[in-house]
Write a structure and sequence with these properties.
The complex is a heterotrimer of chains A (67), B (232) and C (55).
Chain A (H helix, E strand, L loop, with lengths): L8 E6 L3 H10 L8 E6 L7 H9 L4 E5 L1
Parallel strand pairs in A: 1-2, 1-3
Chain B lengths: L1 E5 L2 H7 L5 E7 L2 H4 L5 H17 L5 E7 L5 H4 L3 H5 L3 E4 L3 H11 L4 E3 L1 E11 L2 E6 L15 H4 L26 H11 L34 H9 L1
Parallel strand pairs in B: 2-3, 2-4, 4-5
Antiparallel strand pairs in B: 1-6, 6-7
Chain C lengths: L1 H10 L6 E4 L6 H18 L10
The chains are: A alpha/beta (67), B alpha/beta (232), C mainly alpha (55).
């Protein structure tokens, strides 16, 4: 089981900053972990505790908020 | 508002350990404002409980709802059916809400998820302070709006005790002396002469003496029934 | 953020699985670093305890 473990990491991204940064990372051909699942938000102000807990409830192994 | 604080998670899981289907019911008034038991806190608690149940294979089910007020019958009535379809209801309201809910939901048990702290205000983000003790005989008019019942550890009514040092209470170094505050406020209001009046021995009978108090208004008694019969 | 971490700890999920980054629109390297860092953390902690039986 452990050898097949690939973590799922949720990235809550603000449309105007982190999402653009992620986009730019692509344009710059930066290599980064493919385990990221991006959730785009119009603003990180949308993030609240229930939303973060929900990510873990639905099986995320880690999550970060970028704003 | 009534200020409360959510109980520790372990205490809540212990309370509901024998139930399978649990309704978590928030209250949309005071405890919502002090962020202890409103819609958001319901969703946090439900999320936590679902994760806990998932991790420990408890196989529990959780319903979520929030009503405007749990201390008014008309708000509870619409959710009675829903509540009774669960094994147990976890109320995130104050003690008054839990009790009325529990009266109205028999035989479904109602358990508290919030500790009711006091009647108070939000001083700043994350800080709530006690301001009123419901003593039933308000004297804020004489003290410039600062309550010596709730805010003076010794409940003094005629000036500070000898323990007031640099405006700080001797009982708690984090608490300002209520009488220092009264003095400063009356000075700002240009009403210092109020302090020269001696407050007589106080009538504490309207205050809580252990027996639950009530407010009864004859002019309002039976009004609902009257209008019903008039419309018939 | 701290509160959410505490809520996770209470049910037995490590609070450090969650982090807040301040990433500007032009900060692509920081985004990549955040992504790698969090994946690394998730590897260290192992799978989310909720998923045990489901695999």
């Amino acid at each position: 089981m452990t050898d097949t473990y690939e973590p799922k990491v949720i990235a809550f991204c603000c449309h105007y900053c982190t999402y653009s940064a992620a986009d730019l990372a692509g344009s710059m051909r930066l290599e980064y972990s493919p385990n990221i699942r991006v959730v785009k938000l119009m603003c990180t102000g949308k993030v609240d505790v229930p939303l973060l807990l929900r990510a873990f409830e639905d099986g995320a192994d880690a999550a970060f908020v970028g704003g | 508002m009534i200020v409360g604080e959510r109980k520790p998670f372990a205490e809540i899981t212990e309370l509901i350990k024998d139930s399978k289907k649990v309704l978590i019911l928030g209250c949309g008034t005071c405890v919502s404002v002090c962020m202890a038991g409103g819609m958001k806190e319901v969703s946090i608690l439900a999320s936590q409980l679902r994760m806990d149940s998932g991790i420990q294979d408890k196989g529990m089910e959780f319903g979520e709802d929030t009503i405007q007020r749990q201390c008014d019958r008309e708000y509870i009535e619409p959710i009675i059916e829903l509540a009774k379809s669960h094994d147990v209801v976890v109320s995130m309201a104050c003690g008054a809400g839990v009790q009325l809910l529990s009266d109205m939901l028999v035989p479904t048990p109602v358990l508290p998820a919030v500790n009711t702290s006091f009647i108070g205000i939000c001083e700043e983000e994350g800080t709530w302070l006690e301001r009123c003790r419901g003593c039933g005989n308000c004297l804020l008019g004489e003290t410039g709006g600062i309550c010596p019942v709730a805010r003076c550890a010794k409940n003094l009514f005629n000036g500070p005790c000898g323990g007031s040092v640099n405006g700080i209470c001797e009982v708690s170094p984090n608490t300002p002396c209520a009488w220092q505050l009264v003095y400063d406020r009356l000075k700002a209001l240009d009403k210092l002469e109020t302090l020269e009046e001696i407050q007589p021995i106080r009538d504490w009978s309207p205050s809580s003496n252990g027996i639950p108090r009530g407010v009864f208004r004859e002019d309002m008694a039976g009004i609902g029934k009257e209008s019903e019969s008039a419309s018939e | 953020m701290k509160y959410a971490q505490k809520m996770l700890e209470e049910v037995g999920i490590e609070g450090d699985r969650l982090k807040m980054y301040n990433i500007g629109a032009s900060d692509a390297p920081l985004f990549a670093q955040a992504a790698n860092e969090m994946t690394e953390r998730a590897r260290e902690f192992g799978p989310n305890p909720l998923k045990k039986g489901k695999r």
